[in-house]
Amino acid sequence: DTGVSQDPRHKITKRGQNVTFRCDPISEHNRLYWYRQTLGQGPEFLTYFQNEAQLEKSRLLSDRFSAERPKGSFSTLEIQRTEQGDSAMYLCASSSIRRAGDEQYFGPGTRLTVT
Amino acid sequence: AQRVTQPEKLLSVFKGAPVELKCNYSYSGSPELFWYVQYSRQRLQLLLRHISRESIKGFTADLNKGETSFHLKKPFAQEEDSAMYYCALSGQGAQKLVFGQGTRLTINP
Fold first, then answer.
1. Are A43 and B9 an interchain contact pair (Cβ–Cβ within 8 Å)?
2. Of B51, B97, B100, which has the smallest distance from its Cβ to A45's Cβ?
3. pLDDT digits (tens, 9 = 90+) for B23-75
4. Most buried among A6, A97, A115, B43, by the most CB within 10 A?
5. Burial class of residue B64, CB neighbours in 10 A (0-12, 13-18, 19+)
Protein backbone atom coordinates (compact mmCIF):
# COMPACT_ATOMS: atom_id res chain seq x y z
CA ASP A 1 0.00 0.00 0.00
CA THR A 2 1.48 3.32 -1.04
CA GLY A 3 -0.60 5.45 1.28
CA VAL A 4 -3.44 7.88 0.68
CA SER A 5 -3.75 8.92 -2.96
CA GLN A 6 -5.59 11.85 -4.49
CA ASP A 7 -6.56 12.58 -8.05
CA PRO A 8 -6.02 14.89 -9.82
CA ARG A 9 -2.96 16.49 -8.27
CA HIS A 10 -3.68 19.80 -9.99
CA LYS A 11 -6.87 21.26 -11.42
CA ILE A 12 -7.34 24.57 -13.19
CA THR A 13 -10.91 25.55 -13.88
CA LYS A 14 -12.90 28.59 -14.85
CA ARG A 15 -15.20 30.30 -12.41
CA GLY A 16 -18.65 28.77 -12.50
CA GLN A 17 -17.53 25.29 -13.54
CA ASN A 18 -18.00 22.17 -11.41
CA VAL A 19 -15.03 20.10 -10.26
CA THR A 20 -14.73 16.72 -8.59
CA PHE A 21 -11.78 15.35 -6.65
CA ARG A 22 -11.14 11.78 -5.63
CA CYS A 23 -9.42 10.36 -2.56
CA ASP A 24 -8.37 6.74 -2.08
CA PRO A 25 -7.56 6.04 1.57
CA ILE A 26 -5.23 3.41 2.97
CA SER A 27 -7.10 0.18 2.36
CA GLU A 28 -7.94 -0.88 5.92
CA HIS A 29 -8.80 2.63 7.13
CA ASN A 30 -12.44 3.24 7.92
CA ARG A 31 -12.20 6.98 8.64
CA LEU A 32 -11.68 9.56 5.90
CA TYR A 33 -11.29 13.33 6.24
CA TRP A 34 -11.23 16.28 3.89
CA TYR A 35 -9.35 19.48 4.70
CA ARG A 36 -8.72 22.68 2.77
CA GLN A 37 -5.51 24.67 2.93
CA THR A 38 -5.08 28.18 1.59
CA LEU A 39 -1.75 29.95 1.16
CA GLY A 40 -0.06 30.76 4.43
CA GLN A 41 -2.61 28.92 6.53
CA GLY A 42 -2.84 25.54 8.18
CA PRO A 43 -5.30 22.93 6.94
CA GLU A 44 -8.96 23.57 7.84
CA PHE A 45 -11.36 20.73 8.46
CA LEU A 46 -14.19 20.30 5.94
CA THR A 47 -15.84 16.95 6.62
CA TYR A 48 -15.27 13.42 7.88
CA PHE A 49 -16.64 9.95 7.17
CA GLN A 50 -16.67 6.80 9.21
CA ASN A 51 -17.19 4.02 6.69
CA GLU A 52 -19.87 5.43 4.36
CA ALA A 53 -21.50 7.70 6.94
CA GLN A 54 -20.69 11.41 6.84
CA LEU A 55 -20.48 12.20 10.54
CA GLU A 56 -19.40 15.82 10.64
CA LYS A 57 -19.41 18.81 8.31
CA SER A 58 -17.76 22.16 8.88
CA ARG A 59 -19.62 25.42 8.43
CA LEU A 60 -16.95 26.08 5.78
CA LEU A 61 -18.68 23.47 3.64
CA SER A 62 -21.25 25.59 1.84
CA ASP A 63 -24.06 23.97 -0.13
CA ARG A 64 -21.91 24.22 -3.25
CA PHE A 65 -19.70 21.54 -1.70
CA SER A 66 -20.71 17.91 -1.43
CA ALA A 67 -18.73 14.89 -0.36
CA GLU A 68 -19.54 11.22 -0.69
CA ARG A 69 -18.06 7.91 0.28
CA PRO A 70 -20.58 5.51 -1.21
CA LYS A 71 -19.02 2.15 -0.39
CA GLY A 72 -16.90 3.15 2.54
CA SER A 73 -13.75 3.07 0.43
CA PHE A 74 -12.83 5.98 -1.86
CA SER A 75 -14.40 9.41 -1.46
CA THR A 76 -15.25 12.25 -3.83
CA LEU A 77 -15.48 15.95 -3.10
CA GLU A 78 -17.47 18.01 -5.60
CA ILE A 79 -17.54 21.79 -5.80
CA GLN A 80 -20.32 23.26 -7.90
CA ARG A 81 -20.22 26.70 -9.50
CA THR A 82 -16.64 27.30 -8.44
CA GLU A 83 -15.58 30.73 -7.21
CA GLN A 84 -12.12 32.27 -7.07
CA GLY A 85 -12.20 31.91 -3.29
CA ASP A 86 -12.31 28.14 -3.72
CA SER A 87 -8.71 28.18 -4.95
CA ALA A 88 -6.79 26.13 -2.40
CA MET A 89 -5.09 22.82 -1.72
CA TYR A 90 -7.64 20.12 -0.86
CA LEU A 91 -6.20 17.46 1.42
CA CYS A 92 -7.56 14.05 2.20
CA ALA A 93 -6.55 11.98 5.21
CA SER A 94 -7.50 8.56 6.52
CA SER A 95 -7.24 6.72 9.80
CA SER A 96 -8.28 3.49 11.41
CA ILE A 97 -10.43 3.33 14.50
CA ARG A 98 -9.00 -0.09 15.10
CA ARG A 99 -5.39 1.04 15.34
CA ALA A 100 -4.13 2.56 18.54
CA GLY A 101 -3.86 6.30 18.36
CA ASP A 102 -6.07 6.73 15.28
CA GLU A 103 -3.29 8.63 13.48
CA GLN A 104 -4.39 10.54 10.41
CA TYR A 105 -2.34 9.84 7.27
CA PHE A 106 -2.48 12.57 4.66
CA GLY A 107 -2.52 12.40 0.91
CA PRO A 108 -0.48 14.66 -1.38
CA GLY A 109 -3.41 16.99 -1.99
CA THR A 110 -5.22 18.39 -5.03
CA ARG A 111 -4.34 21.97 -5.86
CA LEU A 112 -7.33 23.82 -7.31
CA THR A 113 -6.93 27.08 -9.19
CA VAL A 114 -10.10 28.91 -10.21
CA THR A 115 -9.52 31.54 -12.90
CA ALA B 1 -14.00 27.77 20.55
CA GLN B 2 -11.09 25.60 19.52
CA ARG B 3 -8.06 27.50 18.35
CA VAL B 4 -4.37 26.84 17.84
CA THR B 5 -1.92 29.72 17.64
CA GLN B 6 1.62 29.53 16.33
CA PRO B 7 3.02 33.01 16.84
CA GLU B 8 6.06 32.65 14.56
CA LYS B 9 5.47 32.22 10.81
CA LEU B 10 9.21 31.98 10.21
CA LEU B 11 12.03 30.75 12.44
CA SER B 12 15.65 30.55 11.45
CA VAL B 13 18.42 29.04 13.57
CA PHE B 14 21.94 27.78 13.01
CA LYS B 15 22.83 24.10 12.89
CA GLY B 16 23.62 22.82 16.36
CA ALA B 17 21.60 25.53 18.10
CA PRO B 18 18.51 24.74 20.20
CA VAL B 19 15.12 25.08 18.56
CA GLU B 20 11.77 25.92 20.11
CA LEU B 21 8.60 26.26 18.07
CA LYS B 22 5.77 27.78 20.04
CA CYS B 23 2.19 26.58 20.11
CA ASN B 24 -0.67 27.84 22.26
CA TYR B 25 -4.18 26.53 22.19
CA SER B 26 -7.62 27.31 23.48
CA TYR B 27 -10.06 24.54 24.26
CA SER B 28 -12.53 24.17 27.07
CA GLY B 29 -11.93 20.50 27.82
CA SER B 30 -8.98 18.12 27.59
CA PRO B 31 -7.64 18.17 24.06
CA GLU B 32 -5.14 15.93 22.41
CA LEU B 33 -2.21 17.86 20.94
CA PHE B 34 -0.08 16.99 17.92
CA TRP B 35 2.83 18.28 15.90
CA TYR B 36 2.74 17.63 12.16
CA VAL B 37 5.65 18.27 9.80
CA GLN B 38 5.84 18.81 6.06
CA TYR B 39 9.26 18.47 4.44
CA SER B 40 9.87 19.97 1.02
CA ARG B 41 7.84 18.19 -1.67
CA GLN B 42 6.46 15.68 0.82
CA ARG B 43 3.06 15.20 2.34
CA LEU B 44 2.00 16.25 5.81
CA GLN B 45 2.98 13.66 8.41
CA LEU B 46 2.63 13.21 12.13
CA LEU B 47 5.77 14.06 14.09
CA LEU B 48 4.56 13.46 17.62
CA ARG B 49 1.53 13.57 19.90
CA HIS B 50 1.38 14.46 23.56
CA ILE B 51 -0.15 11.21 24.78
CA SER B 52 2.73 9.13 23.49
CA ARG B 53 5.34 11.23 25.30
CA GLU B 54 7.99 10.08 22.82
CA SER B 55 11.01 11.82 21.39
CA ILE B 56 10.92 11.66 17.59
CA LYS B 57 13.97 12.74 15.57
CA GLY B 58 15.24 14.39 18.75
CA PHE B 59 12.11 16.52 19.13
CA THR B 60 10.02 16.61 22.30
CA ALA B 61 6.91 18.52 23.29
CA ASP B 62 5.33 18.86 26.69
CA LEU B 63 1.71 19.73 27.24
CA ASN B 64 1.40 22.58 29.76
CA LYS B 65 -2.27 22.80 30.68
CA GLY B 66 -1.74 25.83 32.92
CA GLU B 67 -0.23 27.86 30.09
CA THR B 68 -2.26 26.03 27.40
CA SER B 69 0.93 25.45 25.46
CA PHE B 70 2.53 22.60 23.57
CA HIS B 71 5.90 23.93 22.44
CA LEU B 72 8.16 21.77 20.27
CA LYS B 73 11.81 21.61 21.25
CA LYS B 74 15.05 20.13 20.03
CA PRO B 75 18.37 20.74 21.77
CA PHE B 76 20.59 20.63 18.66
CA ALA B 77 19.08 21.51 15.30
CA GLN B 78 20.11 19.66 12.15
CA GLU B 79 19.83 20.85 8.56
CA GLU B 80 17.32 18.10 7.76
CA ASP B 81 14.94 19.64 10.31
CA SER B 82 14.19 22.44 7.87
CA ALA B 83 10.47 22.08 7.14
CA MET B 84 7.01 23.47 7.80
CA TYR B 85 5.70 22.57 11.26
CA TYR B 86 2.04 22.61 12.26
CA CYS B 87 0.62 22.30 15.74
CA ALA B 88 -2.86 20.75 15.90
CA LEU B 89 -5.45 19.73 18.42
CA SER B 90 -8.28 17.27 18.55
CA GLY B 91 -11.10 17.68 21.04
CA GLN B 92 -12.66 15.06 23.26
CA GLY B 93 -14.72 12.66 21.19
CA ALA B 94 -13.96 14.64 18.05
CA GLN B 95 -11.98 13.27 15.18
CA LYS B 96 -11.19 16.42 13.28
CA LEU B 97 -7.90 18.22 13.68
CA VAL B 98 -7.69 21.97 14.24
CA PHE B 99 -4.38 23.29 12.91
CA GLY B 100 -2.33 26.37 13.62
CA GLN B 101 -1.01 28.55 10.80
CA GLY B 102 2.33 26.78 10.79
CA THR B 103 5.94 27.80 11.35
CA ARG B 104 8.54 27.52 8.62
CA LEU B 105 11.77 26.40 10.26
CA THR B 106 15.03 26.98 8.44
CA ILE B 107 18.28 25.55 9.75
CA ASN B 108 21.28 27.44 8.48
CA PRO B 109 24.60 25.59 8.03
1. no
2. B97
3. 999 998 888 999 999 999 999 999 998 887 788 899 999 899 999 999 999 99
4. A6
5. exposed
